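so ive been stuck on this for like two days lol. basically i have the seq below and the ligand is zinc ion, smiles is in there too. i just want the complex predicted, nothing fancy, no docking runs or whatever. if the output looks off dont worry ill sanity check it later, just need somthing to start from for the group meeting slides
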Amino acid sequence: MSDVPDTRRSVVFTSEVAYESERINAAAVYCSDGRFGEQCDDFLHNALKLPRYDRMIVPGGAACLVGHEAVHLEEGGVVEQLKFLIEAHELRQIVLIAHEDCAYYRQRLKVADDEFETRQREDLATAARRLRGMASVITVECFMLRVDGQTVYFERVEV
Ligand SMILES: [Zn+2]
């Protein structure tokens, strides 16, 4: 009888998605809101052709990269984590996605509903500048996620 535990006994699920070891040197930053997770994957995988992209999923997404006083403690952590990914995973491309009706903007940043769009666009632009400044080789693309009934769509935001 072996003392080595049979770890297979504790397996509760085996993914049908195969592991691929190659990194694609791209990351996306978007909000934790789980109502949009699968659509963001769909967009990044199928529209931007970025399989296996690194995910930096935090409440408010890029709102944590622009120096908002109300959330500067969160910001420090997010910036450090992104710096790590930029170096360790040799990121060359970062995608930022803001979404309509983001609770982070309403509740943490206290932004009025009619100012959401303006603030989010400003934040995407500021975050993009900051990320480009962190590593000159990085390209940054920005998008706005919108909802119409059950349809989720993505618009490019030029920054
Ligand atoms: Zn959100």
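Residues 31, 33, 60, 99, 102-104 surround zinc ion (CB under 6 Å). The domain at 24-157 is CATH 3.40.1050.10 (Beta-carbonic Anhydrase; Chain A).
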